[in-house]
Every structure is written in structure tokens, then in C-alpha cells.
């Protein structure tokens, strides 16, 4: 046809399949004699084919335009129109991403169609997990104050984020936590005995006494052992490092495991480079992963105003191409609904989801912290009294007639008793034998390490009195 | 158009041919003076830049592993990766630019053969690459991560040291990332300068929980890499990039293993022990010959192969303290970042090794 320029692909990299489509459309354009190169129809056809092809097989985005005559952007790096007005995009922090909730602060359902209408048994399990965790926190915090364990971190105020999300997952979904997610394990019926064993580092500790308290792990319950360095779980979870979480999700996808990986982290850990790496990898490699951010207002003493200037963590998701939502973390049903839907779609569509659960850290960062040094008691009291996930759920239960003050009194007594029993037992047990200091560095013990182990044994034969051998299993 | 093309062609021929008469012809073509150096200076410059500081010494053809094929080091790596992906359906290879074959061609053909979900590019982020690899390994699948240059491994240092190395230990063996292997091109190459020449194994040499391996040849590379991939502990495999093309020998086509944490005595000797790894093994081999020839000194040459956990028994350190007749001498680069034009002065070449040996003998 006259005036029809020959089409030439400009890119070095052409998506498979699109090449064939291109040829078809090119031929069609030539036949149809469109004066605008490929033509509108051709473009639409390519784009439709391309986008679907992308979702299935290619994570890459690419401009679909190939005509040299068209005055449209040809850049491989973005799919956008030209604009001739100079305008900076204003980050919206005054009116940020809205916060999804199901219950009001008094535990009343706002929009009945959002009520997950969970059975009584399940909602009671939510309540009992959150309150048992709360009771365990109180006792273990006290025990640290008394010098019985070396360190502890409480979960006050964030129980809803743990339990709501855990309940929405399958039991085999892999969990990469940061360190303030004990409620997830609690919901998965991790026994009190093992929580205590890890805090005491006694012979029953699955972690063999190697880590500080609250660094729980449980292979059976698919909860990867906690590590201290922040955000390191994030890339792993595709693991406080999101990278590993992403890697695990990728492997689950390859194995057609129908599993999602969930990676928890705080708004502070989200500042780490590993978080950026994790988000980007999850999106480009199309991993079935839920990034769950507990935005509790503080990273030790650093308030969110000193942690970021954007609209929290949820606003970052779209920057990576990730589906994102912000929820009321103190509303266990909101957390449940969002996680449930994210899980369904992450597995079905092989893409990451970002949930930012807004909440408040009622307790100190840890037993090494006194938060009155950087925030007012009034502020803390507000959250404790006016907007607490446990009381909101209790109001819901009571309004349904599923709970009353009598049961509350009984349960408090019962849960305290259970915790105290486990606590006393854990305290009585010895620590593991000192030889366990040397195992599991590698799968097999290297010769040098065996020599060191033997040298310690010999040393203790002479100098044993200077060591707390009585507390360790023989 | 034609004239420009003609000039361009001449320039290309000039580059290929090196200094000489072409230079004069080009000046005659009307290009600005001073554009190119006079012929003689150009010739010398090209010459000293081209000469390597070592000669690769191939080992004799291995007979016990079946049919062999002539391979250079990067081809030996490709062969190992090919064997791994064929045997282990969970194995995946990822990193920057691995999809098209890699900047050193180590992964050529693998994506076509095994699919894009098994050989794929990642975004440009080393901490992400290693973190992601750890995650894959935690689920039990085999992860082979490529870091484009060992010089760029540092953003991943935290993941390697604080996570990978400690995964098994800190979880009480509930979890581990043993099926992770990290590969990276390593060492000086003549023109790599500060950020394409580094040998960072020392940073990892004191990190319990990982293994660090450096091969000296294609045959060693394939066997050691296969061992790393199959080892149940996270491993870092550094590949001497200067040997990628320069080292050629007969390498078995089928998979085989060379054990980790075992040094190899490649030459017996009675007077002096020389220990090295990677490219430097070829330097000290030459030093051993020089020592025999010029000083009548008999050298034992040891290729350490695994840096951590290393083969103490073969090298025999503390235990032979009383048997040493001279202090141990370390010949290495200077305590500066790796320089560009000064590389010939920087590297521990055979003359420096020979001189250290001579001083030892005369101690």
C-alpha cells in the first residue's frame, strides 16, 4: 500500500509469541492500509495479547508500539502517555490510603455485608488466642523483671494483627516473622511449654538454647525461626529480611504447592534495603506472598514521622506493582478478611499482596526499653482503653451472646493457671548439655570444631567450678 | 555514508591489527593530529597490557570419569550447572543477566534447555539475590545464585553472614538453607581495577556455617561446583575470571565430585611448602620450578581449594610450629584497594613469591 512505512522492531528483546502476533497484525495493517502505521486496532490487539501473555509468562512490561510515524512514547521503561505540562506529582499524605475496617471501636459491625460471619467456635478461638497471649506476655515480662529470663518482648495491642491473619491462612502456609508475631504461633496451637522453653533456653527448646527469648521457630507449624537482624526475612520469605520469604514463595509456586508465604515486619523494618529488595523481587518474579506490615507507630523510640515521609507502607506497594491495602489492625475481622482475600488471590494469580495493618504498640519495645522516655502515658492509655483488639472482639462476642462476664472471669483464671504451670515447669528444667554449643554449624561437624569441643570438655574437667554446670544437663 | 563506512572499517582493522603502518595511513586521511599515539609507543602499550602474570598449567586428562571434552573454565561451569539442573528438578539458577547466558557466558543455553522458571534474571540487587536464594533453599529446593562480580557481594554480606551461615544453628536444625550455592567471578584479570578484581574470600573465612571454595582449573571447577551444589551447607564458589577463557583442559562430560575441605598436594617437595588457591596456584607452580632450577630447592605445592572449613591436616599449621625452620611468609596484594594501571606492581607475581622463598631458604 502506498505511504505505508515498513515496520521494524526497535527492541533487541521481543517477547515470544508477540513476534508471531506482530507479524499477523503487521500484515493486517498493510492490507487495511491504515495511515497511522499499525493502527488503533493493531495496537489494541497487540496490547491485549501482550498483557495476557505478560500475566501468564512474562513479568516484563514493554511498549507495544512499533510505528516510527506515531508520536507516542516508545520507551521500554514505562507504559504512559506524553504530557506537555510541567507538573510534579504530589505525594498524598494528608488524605492517605483509607483504612479498611469491619467493626467500630465498640465492636459493632459497621457494614453487615463485610461481617465474615464466622462460627462461634472460630471467633472464640480468636478471643482465647489473643487473651492467652496477653496473659503469657504479662507473666513472662514480669519474669524478666525478676531476673528469671534474660529478655522479653510483649505483643500488647497487636494481638489482632497476629490472630486475624493467622486465622485466614492454611496451616501449612509458611510464616516468616520479625519478632512480634507470637500470636500467630499461639493461634497455630504452639504449646505454652515450648514458648517457655525457648525463653528459658532449656532442654525442651527446639532451638537448642541458641537464641535470645522470643526467637521462636517451629517446623511442624511452618513458622520459620525468628532472627534478630531486621527485615532480613523479607527476601527470604520470597524471610525482618523479606527476601527469603520471597524465595520460599517462588519455590512454593514452582512446586505447585498451593501455598502462600506470609512475611511479617514492622514499619521500621520496612525502611531496610531488604524490604525494597523483597517487594521488587516478589513483583518481578510473580511470587505468591503476602507482605504483612504491622505499623504500630514506633520502632523502639522512633515515631513514624521519623521513619518515613510518604503515606506509610501501603503506598509503596503500587510503586512496585503490588496490590496493596491498609486495614485497621485492631479489628480482627478486618485483618481476617483482607488476609483471606489476599491469600486466595496470591495463590490463584501468583502475585504478591501488601497489607498494612495500622495498630499501636501499647507495650515497651522490649524489656530493655522504657517507653515513657519518649511518649506520654496518656497516649498509651488511650489505645489500651479505647481501641484495643481484645476488648473490641469481646464486645462483639458479648453482643452475640457468645461470651459474658462470668466466662471472662473463669477464662482469666484458667489461662493464668495454665501459663503459670508451664512457666514453673520450664523454670525447673535444666539447660541443654554444653556440647550442643557446637552442633548444627554445618550439617556435619568439621574436624576443627570437634577438636574445640573436646578441648572445652577437657578445660571443664579442671576449671568446671567456675562454670554454671549445675544448670546444664549432664 | 560510504566514506564514513570506509573510515570506520579502517579503524576497526587498525584495532584488530595493533600498531604499525595503519597508523600512518590514518593520519594521512585527514583526522586531527594527536588523535592517535605514534606507532612505537602504541605497540609497547598494547604489549605489556596483554601479557598475563601466569601460565595456566592444565592437569593430565582424567580417566576415571568417562568421556571428556575440551572445555575452558566457563564451559566447565556451564557443564556443572547443566548436570545439576538435569538431575535435580528443584534446582534453579538466578542472578543478574543469567537469562541470556551471563556476562561471562556461564549460563549459555540453560534457559532454553530448562525453561524460564528455572533460569531467570533478577532485579539488580545482591542482597535480594542472596536473600531470595536463602528462601528457596529453606523450602528444600536447590538455589544457585550468581553474583555478577565478587566485588559486588558486599550488599549481600548481611544475608550471607547473619542469615545463611547461621540458619541451621540458630534454629536448632529445624531449618537450614544448605541447598544454596552462590557463584561469583573472582580475582584479578589484568584490567579489572578496583571493582572487577577483588578476592573477598578473607571476609568470609571466619564465618562459621558457610563454605568458601576457589578452583584452579576447569576440571577442578566442575567437580568442586557440583560438590558445592550438592553440599548440605550454604556455599560460596568463587570462579577465577582470568581463567574463564585462558584455562582449557579435558573435562568429563558426566557429573563427578571433588571433595570439599580437602587440599590437594599437586607437587611433592621437601624443603619449602607453597600454598595458594585459584589463579595463584599457577604462579606458585612456576615459582616451584624456578626454585628448583635456580636454587636447587624442592618445593611442595598445595592447592587449598576450600578456604573454610580448610584442610588443616594437609597444610599442617600449629602442629608444625616447632618444626618450621623459618617463619611463614604470606605473599599477597598490598593493603590497598585493587588498582587499575598499577596492577602489575600490585599482584603477588612469581618474582615476589620467588624472592620470599629465597629469603626463607636463607633465613
Model description:
The complex is a heterodimer of chains A (474) and B (363). With 474 residues, chain A is of the alpha/beta class. Helices cover 41% and strands 9% of the residues of chain A. Chain A is built from 14 helices and eleven strands. In chain A, the strands form three sheets. Chain A has a seven-stranded parallel sheet, sandwiched between helices. A two-stranded parallel ribbon of chain A has the order 4-5. Chain A has a two-stranded antiparallel ribbon with strand order 8-9. In chain A, α10 (332-349) links the parallel β10 and β11. In chain A, α3 crosses α13 (405-428), α4 runs parallel beside α10 (332-349) and α6 (192-200) crosses α13. Chain A is globular. By secondary structure, chain B is of the alpha/beta class. Helices cover 38% and strands 15% of the residues of chain B. Chain B has 15 helices and twelve strands. Chain B has helices at 2-17, 21-28, 39-50, 73-87, 110-114, 126-138, 157-163, 167-170, 201-204, 218-230, 243-246, 280-295, 312-315, 343-346, 350-361; strands at 68-72, 92-95, 119-121, 143-146, 180-186, 211-213, 235-240, 248-252, 264-267, 272-276, 299-303, 306-308. In chain B, α4 (73-87) packs parallel to α10 (218-230), α6 (126-138) runs parallel beside α7 and α12 crosses α15. Mean pLDDT of chain B is 88; it is low at 1-29. Classes of the chains: A alpha/beta (474), B alpha/beta (363).
The fraction of residues in strands of chain B falls at 5-15%
- The quaternary structure here is heterodimer
Order of helices and strands of chain B: HHHEHEHEHEHHEHEHEHEEEHEEHHH
Describe the strand arrangement of the main beta sheet of chain A, using strand numbers.
1-10-11-7-6-2-3
What is the N-to-C succession of helices and strands of chain A? HHEHHEHHEEEHEHEEEHEHEHHHH
Anisotropy-based shape of chain A? globular
- The helix count of chain A comes to 14
Report the uncertain regions of chain B.
1-29
* Strand arrangement, major sheet of chain B: 3-2-4-5-7-6-12
Radius of gyration of chain B: 23 Å
Class from secondary-structure proportions of chain A: alpha/beta
Major sheet of chain A:
7 strands, parallel
What is the total tally of β strands of chain B? 12
Number of helices of chain B: 15
Mean pLDDT of chain B: 88
Structural class of chain B: alpha/beta
Q: What distance separates the N and C termini of chain B?
A: 70 Å
Distance between the termini of chain A: 92 Å
| Beta-strand content estimate of chain A | 5-15%
- What's the overall average pLDDT of chain A, rounded? 87
InterPro entries (chain A): Alpha-ketoacid_DH_E1_comp (IPR050771), DH_E1 (IPR001017), THDP-binding (IPR029061)
Protein name (chain A): 2-oxoisovalerate dehydrogenase subunit alpha
Organism (chain A): Equus przewalskii (Przewalski's horse)
Family (chain A): Belongs to the BCKDHA family.
